[in-house]
Amino acid sequence: MATCLCDAFYDDVACATVEVLEHLGCTVEFPEGQTCCGQPAFNGGDWTASRRVVRHAVRTFAGSCPVVVPSGSCAAMLFHGALLEFEREPDRAAVEDLGRRAWELGDFVVNGLGVRTWPGRYAARVAFHRSCHSRGTASSAAAETLLGSIAGLTLIPFGEGEQCCGFGGTFSVSFPTISGSMGKLKLEHLRAARPEVVASGDMSCLMHLGGLAGKEGRPLRTRHLAQILRDSLRHGGSPS
Amino acid sequence: MSEERDEIFARVRRALAPLPVRTALPDWDPARIAPGFAAADSCTLFVERFREVGGVPLSSRQGLMAWLAGKGWACGYCDPGLWPELRGHFPPQMEVSTSLRRARIDDYAFAITVASGAIAETGTVILTDRDTPVRLAALAPWAHVAVIPRSRIHRSIACALGAMPDDPNIVWVTGPSKTADIEGILIEGVHGPGIQAAWVADDR
Amino acid sequence: MKEQPIDRFAAELEASRRSAVYEGTKATHEKRTRHLAARFAEADVLRRTAGEIKQHVVEHLDRYLPEVEVKLRQHGVGVHWCSTADSACATVLRILQARGVRRLVKAKTMLGEEIGLAGYLERHGIESVETDLGEFIVQVDRDHPSHIVRPIIHKSRREVATTLERIGLGTYDDDPSTITQRIRSHLRGKYLAADAALTGANFISVESGRVVIVTNEGNSRFCLAAARLHLVLVGIEKLVPRDRDLALLLNLLARSATAQPLTVYTEFVAGPRASGQADGPDEMEVVFVDNGRTEMLASDCRDILRCIRCGACLNVCPVYRQATGHAYRSVYPGPVGAVLSPLLAGSRFPEWADLPKASSLCGACNEVCPVDIPIPDLLLRLRARGKQEGGPQARIGTLPMGLWSWIAARPELWRAALRAGAALDLLPLRLAPVPALRAWSKDRDLPAWRGGAFRRWFRHRSRL
Questions:
Q1: Chains sharing 3 or more CB pairs under 8 A with chain C
Q2: Which residues make up the CATH 3.40.50.10420 domain(s) of chain C?
Q3: What are the tens digits of pLDDT across the range C66-97?
Q4: Which residues, in sequence order, are CB contacts of C353 under 8 Å at separation 6+?
């Protein structure tokens, strides 16, 4: 699943995801009918609307293949959120089935395929932002395992790493003041650590942080986990 | 039995009736929650943890008396049960009484009471109504000295809970009374003692 | 689109107040994290176990409530049951009046705040003095607590010093130590003169009928040293099955609330004082309060009844840190408040339906919760309920999702929309027809629209 964000804005992340999976020997299919995981309406409380979208995803991704998503947030929607809104629905089993097959990319590579080290080279100091929807899952640890194993790449810690970037989907629209303050705080912590690249498993966090930084006139170099993995393979040298 | 009682109970039953399964009570292992202190004996561990929570450990009667003398207090209280053993050892000019008069409550700078036991894991002193017959003594004076029988130091909270005395009032005191309500700044001695001291004594 | 009240509150908040709350909560949260990690290898296992214990209690209240009632009566304790806040206030008043009580000292109880007890007693001629330092300041300032554990986290020492001067406790001095000493001597007189003491209860053990009360200041202990009557005000959910379960819960409560191994004063009260004891109440009465809890029990949000009021979710919550407690308009602020307040409101739920939206659903609250309450899931359920029940508070700041979901279930329309979205790039965002996008882009750049680019790349590639 490419995610609607990559579909609309971040095509390169989706491309990188495909290349990373193919490098590992996977055959990647992209069902053209896919749209979204249903999360915006789910978070907004409109579960009727959200279920409509989830049902569409269930149909689109029918079968037995793992569904790999370059987003902890969309993955969590499929294996956790959707189950909440389908608790009393007759087709809950189909949703559960999709949930069992849904993986966040880093989690899939490390815990699904058993890959623990990543080849190539990526010479950069990288601050990895653990996106919130990966809490309680193996995703952040998996991403850090992979990134930490890349030659030339240094993972650098920063303050209040457990705190949210302030995006939260529609939250950032309905609560512009609080969301903006949260994001700016995150930027302060990140900048204090002086990374060359800010990475995450979720483009939504990076879009928020990058958008805030851009408006401040101090652009932030952001890369998705998939892009770093691919670039490490491709360039074997400095980040593209 | 009141009408409201029956209504509440009925609502509770109605709310729970539709649950297809109910959560079972987990059978957890108390040993799991207090790791990391296998080596030390309970008394040593208590003294270490008591110090960590801001307590003042005293190791002997002489130590207690020297400590009291150093404070220069004029007036204090001593549990009547301890009096035979301690009388005659207090610093000269120190007024020590074996009854606590409420009218003079602010005059007592310290009180020495009998504790029922202690908890090593947390540096906690255990007081009960039976062994500490004047609740205010352990509370109102600025300093409280608990005399703890060495044989009654429990290893952990779980052990202490497993051996709760049959007493209507048991209080665990872990360090001096304190607050961080004002700007998060730690201040000791809010309502209770600003100093908690303890003397682990051989059983009498 | 109308502003969210909590966001507006945050926007209008004084910077000093925000930074006081931010620094205070951050320090406590970080201390908690260090504390748990230092002593417990398996802190998460403990949290989950404690959560199961409390969930078990909540789901077996039909059995435990009658059992604990029997135990308490065996200890000579009077037991009362109240369905509503009004009934609880009236019951307390009746008990006090029947014994001629004029002066009451109170230890901190969130339930007391919830039912508005202090004001009620005052209106009925009973002096009711808060003895927790923070609550005392809140009471004399006629303010409201802004944190479950630290009621005056929003106030500076200068404000507190000004308050003391105003009520005649010495000339202005903002040294926290002096402030504390002045309140200490002022409240001494109150304790000794009081006819009765009212406390909450952190836990009641069904097995032993022991009422567990914890404080750091020792104020509840002082209440129980001098007064003749001990009244306990407690929610019906505050039970634990066995004494041994307290080993886990007391440990987690202290560590989660204030990063201590154990609260300074942990009292186990099973009835009036023992014969031979000089101090302490001759009589003990326990008032169990429902006030909406059975309704929560019947709902899909019953997990919130596990809450042990430690405040850890407030301390970690980025929204609480930015907005501060008063933004939540309720006794219970922060993530737990965003769940509890709408549920406690009963039929007035719609008025509180904006609270569950005040969260980025980041899940930090669940991660620190000592009883592992899935707070984000509960917030989501309440959002869904808000949507169903409508009401203006539920609608503000909410994007209409009907059209979006209709398109998202139709792939050909979705693809067309992806292609058409490119128009966004041609339009200055300030002029965008969607107000939400305008608000978002006030502080943020939007990335360039690349709708359909990946699909073209993938199709092209597969043809190679």
A1: A, B
A2: 40-291
A3: 999 999 999 999 999 999 999 999 999 999 99
A4: C342, C382, C385, C386, C389, C391, C393, C394
Reported pTM: 0.94
pLDDT in tens, B143-191: 999 999 999 999 999 999 999 999 999 999 999 999 999 999 999 999 9
Set of chain C residues whose Cβ sits within 8 Å of the Cβ of A45: 356-357, 380, 382-387, 394, 398
How far apart are alpha carbons A75 and A77 in whole angstroms? 5
- Report the neighbours of A using a cutoff of 3 or more CB pairs below 8 angstroms: C
The answer to whether residue A240 sits within a structural domain is: no
To the question of domain C40-291 being in CATH 3.40.390.30, the answer is no
Residue A112 DSSP label: I
Residues in chain A closer than 8 A to C322 (CB atoms): 177-178, 181-182
- The ipTM assigned to this model is 0.96
Partner residue facing A33 (CB), from C366, C411, C440:
C411
Q: Which residue has the tokens 């002029």?
A: C431
| Candidates C362, C366, C442, partner chain A, best to mutate (most A CBs within 10 A) | C362
Residue C401 pLDDT exceeds 90: no
Print the domain residue range for A90.
4-111
Contacts of A9 (CB under 8 A, 6+ apart): A203, A207, C447, C448, C449, C450, C451
Name the CATH topology of C5-12+294-395: Fumarate Reductase Iron-sulfur Protein; Chain B, domain 2 (1.10.1060)
Provide the chain A residues 129-148 that lie in CB contact (below 8 A) with chain C. Answer: 132-133, 135-136
Pairwise CB contact (< 8 Å): C224 & B7: no
